[in-house]
Structure formats: structure tokens, C-alpha cells
Design a protein that fits this description.
This protein is α/β, with parallel strands linked by helices and 276 residues long. It has two domains: 169 residues, HUPs (Rossmann fold); 93 residues, 2-Layer Sandwich (Pantoate--beta-alanine Ligase, Chain: A,domain 2). The protein is globular, with a radius of gyration of 19 Å. Helix 2 links the parallel strand 2 and strand 3. Bound molecules: adenosine monophosphate. Adenosine monophosphate binds next to helix 2 and strand 5. Adenosine monophosphate (AMP) binds next to helix 2 and strand 5.
């Protein structure tokens, strides 16, 4: 496994790679969810490149950029064991040199939900992913369904800016109790960790109601809020039933939809979603 730290070296190594080339962007703090993206890339591509970069531009001023889990050596060991060929671990100045002054703003699909709760978040995500796709020029790029809105933002910029990658969405990997794997789960205290599966319980309830014939999105959202409310340590940030393709708010579940939610457990903010 080769590890490079400069844009020039990463571009050169990707240019010389056997095709198809798969790209797996991450912020590190690796877990089995990230490795599922790697496994999928390994199954579909001759070369798999991954990136580890905690992107300051996607964190708000009051968010957890400084305390975000960073374990570079463990992460590199995990990527190496999975058979990753190339890893890009740039310092911040390599991605955002002093003169950096171009930002990618994706429109409608980034406006609601996480976009509303975290102003500037998707501008940071879109800018860094555009830059990574422009440097690596992968044939395929792998993202997790856990971050459903992020997937739609990336599909939109990849299409609009003609970056030419096939964007592959990999299903959410969960703990046995349903909690979606997330780098931030390590921040949960034991009692908070016990409370955290409430997100998945609320999503399963939404799916059950819809399967049993409830199409009223408001009624489903109310039931999800009530379910989360049963957990003393959990506080709803938002709950939504949205069109699966556009993320527009739905009144009735009359087309492919997602139930999405963001919940605070103590100081940790978790998101998750399920298809309806
Ligand atoms: P992050 O390091 O949190 O930026 O995540 C890097 C990539 O891994 C993103 O495409 C995430 O959507 C994906 N990912 C994170 N958690 C999971 C999970 N539990 N299952 C599947 N993919 C995930």
C-alpha cells in the first residue's frame, strides 16, 4: 500500500493506476462502514485509492473539528489489511493553500435537513469531494447511504460539473442493535451508547407504519418523535419524510421516500435514514 501526502503525488499515482480506479473518500476514524466501501471498490475495480482527510471546511465554528477522532496509524493498518492500494493523507495546507478561494455550492438538494441544521456543511463537502475527484479522476467513487443527503449532493455535483465518475452508494452498516456505525460513536458514554439505537427503532417504526398502509407523513413523523422521546438522553434535531431522489418534504408517501432523522445524544449528534 502506498501512502502519499501531496496533490502532485496523488495525481501521478492515480494517473498511473490500473483501471478501473475506485476512490473511497473518508475522514478516518475508520470502522466496518468505511471498510464496506473499500470491499465494494475492491470487488469492482483493479485499483482502490482511499483518502483520509478531516475536512475543516465542512465543520461549523461550534462543531467538533478539533475533537473529531484521528487515529492515522490504526486507519492505515485497517486500509492495508483490506487491500487498499493507495492512500492520500494530505495536511490541511495541501488541500486549502493560503490562496485557496473557490467553493462549490450545490443547490436545492443541499438546502434542507443537514444543510439547514449545519450552514456551510455541504459547501465544504462539495468543495473537497470535487477537488478529490478532480485530482484522482476515478472511474468509480464510493459513498455510504448513512449520509443519504451527502450522496445526493455528490451525485449532483458529479453530473453538473461532468466529473465523469460513477457514484456508487453502499448500504449502511449497522451494529447488531441497529445503531449505524459512525466515527462519532466512540464519543458516546456507556449510557449514551445504550440510548443510541433509538434512532434505528424510530426508523423501523416509520417503515412498519408505511408498510401497514399509513401514507400520512405527518403521522409517521409524529410517531418517530414519540419513539425518540421515550429515550431520556435523546433529543430530536429533525425528523423528516422526504422524496428519495430530491429530498423534498413529502405530505404523503406516494413515491420512493426516505425517513431521515438527526438526534442529539448528550454532546454527540447522530444521523440515520431508512428507505420507505
Ligand atoms: P466519513 O469518514 O464519516 O466522512 O465517511 C466516509 C464515507 O463512509 C462516507 O461516504 C460515509 O457515508 C460512509 N459511511 C460512514 N458510516 C457508514 C456506515 N455505517 N455504513 C456505510 N457507509 C458509511
Amino acid at each position: 500500500m502506498r501512502v502519499v501526502e501531496t496533490v502532485a503525488d496523488f495525481r501521478r499515482a492515480c494517473g498511473a493506476a490500473r483501471r478501473p480506479l475506485g476512490l473511497v473518500p473518508t475522514m478516518g476514524g475508520l470502522h466496518a462502514g468505511h471498510l464496506a466501501l473499500v470491499k465494494r471498490s475492491k470487488a469492482e475495480c483493479a485499483t482502490t485509492a482511499a483518502t483520509i482527510f478531516v475536512n475543516p471546511a465542512q465543520f461549523g465554528p461550534k462543531e467538533d473539528f478539533n475533537t473529531y477522532p484521528r487515529n492515522l496509524w490504526t486507519d492505515l493498518d485497517m486500509f492495508e489489511s483490506e487491500g487498499v492500494d493507495l492512500v492520500f493523507t494530505p495536511p490541511v495546507e495541501e488541500v486549502y493553500p493560503t490562496a485557496f478561494d473557490t467553493w462549490v455550492n450545490v443547490g436545492k438538494v443541499s438546502s434542507r435537513l443537514e444543510g439547514e441544521a449545519r450552514p456551510g456543511h455541504f459547501r465544504g463537502v462539495a468543495t473537497v469531494v470535487t477537488k478529490l475527484l478532480a485530482i484522482a479522476r476515478p472511474d468509480r467513487a464510493y459513498f455510504g447511504q448513512k449520509d443519504a443527503q451527502q450522496c445526493l449532493v455528490i451525485k449532483q455535483l458529479n453530473d453538473d460539473l461532468a466529473l465523469g465518475a460513477v457514484v456508487v452508494i453502499v448500504p449502511t452498516v449497522r451494529e447488531p442493535d441497529g445503531l449505524a456505525l459512525s466515527s462519532r460513536n466512540v464519543n458516546l458514554r456507556p449510557d449514551e451508547r445504550r440510548a443510541a439505537p433509538v434512532l434505528y427503532r424510530a426508523l423501523c417504526l416509520a417503515q412498519k407504519m408505511q408498510r401497514e398502509g399509513t401514507n400520512d407523513a405527518e403521522a409517521i413523523c409524529r410517531a418517530m418523535r414519540e419513539e425518540v422521546g421515550k429515550e431520556r438522553l435523546a433529543q430530536v434535531d429533525y425528523v423528516s419524510i422526504s422524496d428519495a431522489a430530491t429530498l423534498e418534504d413529502l405530505e404523503r408517501v406516494d413515491r420512493p421516500a426516505l425517513a431521515l432523522l438527526a438526534v442529539r445524544i448528550g454532546k454527540t449528534r447522530l444521523i440515520d435514514n431508512i428507505a420507505l
